[in-house]
Amino acid sequence: MASGYVLGVSAFYHDSAACLLAGDVIVAAAQEERFTRIKGDESFPAHAARYCLAEAGVTAADLDAVVFYEKPLLKFERLIETYLNIAPRGLGSFRRAAPLWLKERLYIERDLRSGLGGYTGKIVYTEHHEAHAASAFFPSPFDEAAILTIDGVGEWATATIGAGRGSELEIFEELRFPDSLGLLYSAFTYQAGFRVNSGEYKLMGLAPFGSPCYVDRIYSQLLELADDGSFTLNQKFFDYRGGLRMTNQHFDRLFDGPPRTPEGPLTQREMDLACSVQQVCEEIVLRMSTYAHRRTGLDKLCMAGGVALNAVANGRLARQGPFAEIWVQPAAGDAGGAIGAAYCAAHKYFGQPRQKHEGTDSMQGTFLGPAFTPDDVRTTLRRAGAHYEESSGGGAEDSAAELIAEGKVVGWFQGRMEFGPRALGARSILADARDPAMQSRLNQKIKFREGFRPFAPSVLSEHAGEYFDIRGESPYMTFVVPVTESRRFEGSSNSVGLQRVADIRSQIPAVTHLDYSARVQTVSRGQNPVFHSLISAFAERTGCPLVVNTSFNVRGEPIVATPADAFACFARTAIDALVIGPFVVRREMQSAQSLATGSPAAIGID
Fold first, then answer.
1. pTM for this predicted structure
2. d(CA 387, CA 381)
3. Rounded CA gap, 118 and 570, in Å?
4. Is the distance from CB of 376 to CB of 424 less than 8 angstroms?
5. Among candidate residues 448, 558, 582, the one with its CA nearest the CA of residue 31
6. Sheet of 123-125: strands edge to edge?
């Protein structure tokens, strides 16, 4: 029997989210952090769920099922068995974890029902990697495809290989805890002094500054790697099974010292650690995918799980791997588990037919979150005491393009909010990629983050091949690709270490990383006509069909969700202008009072 409304939920670990399906169509999806303003919020996604239901005009009573993205009892089994296997080591960690599980995690049904206002209907549980696999395949543009999921750990699985055909999904093989590529990468993230579950992006961005001098030690000491990509980790060097840290003193000795103090200076060692584990990660992903190709006999691949957000590995896989086409779930981490859980229930439990996608995916560009009317925006700006101009008929896009062409940094807030970790032209900060000083300016004065962090280009799809060696579309920034040689500036430099970030490497230096690569978003008129119009207007003025696109937030905060969030971020940073709906807010036109009081609380909008 086909389903009506199904609500998928991921929660209680990190990046909690909710997704509402109507049949086989995503009505809405959002992460809880965007509403609570707590980065990576793990709490029950009450705000996100309420938004999803409101978007459809239904209540929890109208749901056919609520679906949780993993099986808590199976995860508890892994926790208990792991501690028993290493006892008495890990007793301190067990004392901390067990009461939490007994008090909260084993009562997830209670929390689901109460979080939805006393929901009394059906509750369904999927396995963690089953949810990842479903999020990879069912929204993809493929009628059939191999599926590869890789992350830290779900219940027991850390990676799986499977296949999807029509409305059917099957997982063939899995790699199990404690052997985990996600945890291996997180161990190096920890050792480099970054935060686990959020700093992995930084490690990936740092890698080109280093040399792979630790690769041999990783292969000889840390893991035993098979041809099919499966491996065994030497637990002598890790402490994540029962300790309170990822690595231990054996790891410290092997890699020339203890973990870097967070926020301490980055040394060549951290750069070399990043480069080395990134190279190993890419090799394992390539071997796993090659085996998946051989195991399934299919020429298309779908990917999900946190490791699928490693766009550098994805880019290498696209260039060197065996698959003709690859589709990566844009919300590949735990937040995307809400989408996968909902799809699992719709197709597996309710027999919902899968719609024919005819070469396009069903993620709707990830524009699945809340939108705001011009009246909503006007009310916010008036309460903030902001001075603004109102335009019509494409005037906002033209104004934004003109500002960017003048060297200004623009906060861009249009339409429905993106779902997942990437800003894709709805909640973005935009700038001119041709400006050699723009990367430093954005990192230091606007994002307040490490100066080595690269920025992504958003390029008109029809002109992408003029600047990047790219095959097909990349609408979700899930692939890192080379900048074409014709756009590069080759030459020697006396810069060393992180100073090399200032070297001008191409005609678009603000988005060209140290290794002449870029994490590209291709923008088509059909998927995002307003953003496409802006970039087209910029190209008409400058001859350059791309802009810098980074998420509309500052370090440590979620991407902005509401007009009040957007004005608050604009007010306390060096963003030159805010283009929000049809309104243009220029910094030089604002009073000191409006900028000083530009917080959501002060404005009175939540």
1. 0.94
2. 8
3. 39
4. no
5. 558
6. 25-31, 17-22, 5-10, 65-68, 123-125
Mention every residue, 6+ apart, whose C-beta is less than 8 A from residue 454.
205, 439, 511, 513, 518, 519
Neighbouring-strand partners of residue 480:
519
CA–CA separation, 282 and 583 (whole Å): 44
Which residue, 318, 276, 320, 292, is CA-closest to 184?
Answer: 276
Bridge partners, 427 (sequence order):
413
Rounded to the nearest 5°, which phi and psi values hold at 120?
-120, 5
- Check: CB of residue 524 under 8 Å from CB of residue 516: no
Query: What is the CA 176 to chain-centroid distance, rounded?
Result: 24
Amino acid code (one letter) for 187: A
pLDDT at 606: 40
Q: How far is CA 456 from CA 58, 95, 414, 423, 478, in A?
A: 38, 44, 19, 10, 11
Single-letter residue type at 68: F
d(CA 458, CA 473): 12
The residues, ordered by sequence, that sit 6+ positions from 210 with a Cβ below 8 Å of its Cβ are 268, 270, 271, 272, 273, 274, 275, 276
| Residues contacting 588, CB < 8 A, separation 6+ | none
- What is the rounded CA–CA span in Å between residue 259 and residue 404? 41
User: What sign has the CA pseudo-torsion 527, 129, 6, 164?
Assistant: positive
CA angle 65, 21, 6 (to 5 degrees): 0
**395 burial via Cβ count (<10 Å: 0-12, 13-18, 19+):** middle
User: Regarding beta strands 325-328 and 521-523, do their DSSP bridges make them parallel or antiparallel, or are they unpaired?
Assistant: unpaired
Q: Can you read off the two tokens belonging to residue 473?
A: 């579309």
pLDDT of residue 198: 86
Cis upstream peptide for 421 (omega within 30°): no
Residue type, 528: N
**What are 66's two structure tokens?**
């609520």
* pLDDT given for residue 97 in this prediction: 61
Low-confidence ranges of the chain (pLDDT < 50): 1, 601-606
Give tens-digit pLDDT for 160-211: 999 999 999 999 999 999 999 999 999 999 999 999 988 999 999 999 999 9
User: Residue 541: which H helix or E strand, with range?
Assistant: helix 529-542
DSSP code per residue over 160-220: EEEEEETTEEEEEEEEETT--HHHHHHHHHHHTTPPTTTSHHHHHHHGGGS--TTHHHIII
Sole residue written with tokens 């959501």: 600
